[in-house]
Amino acid sequence: MNAVLILLPVAIMLGAIFAAMFVKATRDGQFDDLDDPPKRILKDD
Amino acid sequence: MEGEAEAFCCSGCAMAYDIIRGSGLSRYYVEREACPPRPEPASGSWDSIPLETAPDGSVATRLVIDNLRCASCVWVTEAVLQRTPGVLGATVSYATGRAALRWDPALTSLAALAGRIAALGYRPRPLGAAATPDRDLTVRLGVAAFAAMNIMLLAISVYAGWWDGMEPRWTAVFRWATLVLATPVALWCAQPFFAGAIAGLRQGRIHMDLPIALAVALLYGHGVLATLGGFDGFLDSLAMLVALLLAGRMLEGRGRRRAAEAALALASSLPATARRETADGLETVPAGDLRAGDRIDLGTGEEIPADGVVLEGFGQVRMALLTGESAPVAVGPSSPVVAGAVVEVGALTVAVEQAGDDTLLRRMARQLGVAADRGLLPTLADRIAPEFTLATLLAAAVTALVWWRVGGGSVALAHAVAVLVVACPCALALSQPLAAAAALGATARRGLMLRSVEPLLALGEIDIVALDKTGTVTGGTPTVISGADDAIRIAAGLERYSAHPIARALLAEAAARRIPLPAAHGVVEVPGHSISGIVDSRHWSVGAGESGEICLKDDRGGCSIIRLGDRIRDDAPRIVAALQSRGLRVALLTGDHAEVAGAVAVQCGITEVVARCGPEGKSEWVRARQAEGHRVLLAGDGINDGPALAMADVGIAMGSGAAATVLVADGVVAYPALGPVLAGFRASDAARRAIGRNQRRSIGYNVLAVLAAALGLVNPLVAAVLMPLSSGMVIWGASGVERTVRREEAL
Q1: Closest approach of chain B CAs to the CA of A26, in angstroms?
Q2: Which of B264, B636, B683 lies closest to B455 in space, CA to CA?
Q3: pTM of the entire structure?
Q4: CA dihedral in degrees (B628, B632, B637, B642; nearest 10)?
Q5: CA within 20 to 30 Å of B185's CA: B84, B154, B168, B235, which one?
Q6: B468 is catalytic
Q7: What is residue B5's DSSP assignment?
């Protein structure tokens, strides 16, 4: 059970890293346009 | 185009074809759904546009591209740009008409890139100011959702401990971890609600943000105490609540931003500079510095930067942006001209009357901005917020008082907090925005772009549908109805270089009948009158006949007639019948003669016809019906319909119409069809039912849950289950809108 003391902070840290990546992606404009990219993959060039 | 003879209307088109084929993109011609309009001269100066320079020396900027008609247009524009040497990145958005460009300034320039876009037939222009989407809200939502999910995981462990037993020190670890995760949610993610509540209070108003902010503050305070004191808090409910509310708010904001972007695109469409006459010659000044009384010079291909009157010179001006009329208008001394119009041919000196923000174009763009803001009218949730807040606080106070008498301080606190938690109007606050967003999405997918929630809901009150004839019930462009092959061949051959709508009709007919165009020599066009030239070594002239027909005369005095007319839209009879079967009264309004209007009405099954009805006549008619207590929807396309569209309870512009009409309208039909209007009625009905159902359910939930909490039946686990359940109920109700519309369509 003592493993939880290490695993819990590690899990939260990992999650926080992903959250930080999400924040960066958003600020870089990744989610600005949700309408066009799905259409773009249909064009094969 | 594949395997067919290549015929071009002008050298510009031939150039566009060469660019496209040279880039290996011929597939565009197979895939395109709509043909681009003729290329227009690119206007304005490209040097004055602000550029962002990246550390690697590349520069970037954003442009608006007008006239993108279909996904293929986007594809070809992007592909051509990407294959231009020096371009590092080019993406074009179909939804907003924006292009984001990045290039190496040593290899190419913005002017060159704009030139390539223009050569394809699209119209690039500078973007006034960048409208950044609300990234802040997205980040807050992401963080809140992340925290909420992790907290749920921890909370489930703690709740499991109620039954299986858990050592107190492990419970404490989990509680502290929960507090760590919940802190950014309460203090940072929920900040928009605090800001909204405070802004409301400053204006002396209580709206839905206040009970939400109160609940968040209280839950977090209680959670901190609970963690310190070693008892269960409601931090899991808090995180879920904030995440759900932020999601609702983001959905709401997306629709509003679209309308605001349209306003911005229009406002930024004025040219950046102008040539002003001074005592010592001409100087180039920013268009914003123009003042009434200034004299400016304009040449062929330039866009007019301000409203004014022509002092000298003659020319042809195209006002498509304002009037939707693509044929150029002849102007001369004392003719008024408006900002945003393009000088097709000629050289003009114009006295400025209104410049910058006072121009007609900017005033209309501002109206649109205001209309976009109006989307914030209070919902039912906002209207009942004061009573709601008061009732909740009262219920909590009564609960605390009673339980204090019965069980003492800590029991009283726990139950009073439980009352405030379950009373949080999360589901109620989500009920309207979610259903409205679902309905706006459903109409948009079917081709009707509504400005905001109000017209959507107003559709439900409509009992008269008034349709303008030209451009709404009919296609709005002349098409050839009858004429001999020979006559079409010669007339089309003569007209092949003309931009006039009649010429386009003739060329389209010749192409449809697969008639090869003959060579024409010595063609002379007298604008607005006739066109003549030599075909097959004989001299011909094409001119307007008596009514809606053109006459092809040969040199021996013979004359053959080609009849032109305006065909009704294919789906018009079906849609009119469907509208009538919904119990709506359908009327046809037109400026045309009763005879023409009557024929169209009979074809579509409309019995009520108001003919010979000018712009004032139309708004007068709408006003008269409204005075009788009717609610009127008007669909129209011309600038003439503008006042009546603004007057109508719901005004819908056909997308092919004038920008000015689109601006005053509550909605725009994106396809050349009437079907989207019917889809609007269906979605409106579905949305109104869904909103009513959602509100009844969520108020019912709140009342029952508050009663249960007051009786001491709600512990943190029950709250954590109830809260998402009530919101889930509302989300399910909203998603029913699309299902209802589909069911009706299938009938």
Answers
A1: 6
A2: B683
A3: 0.63
A4: 60
A5: B168
A6: yes
A7: P
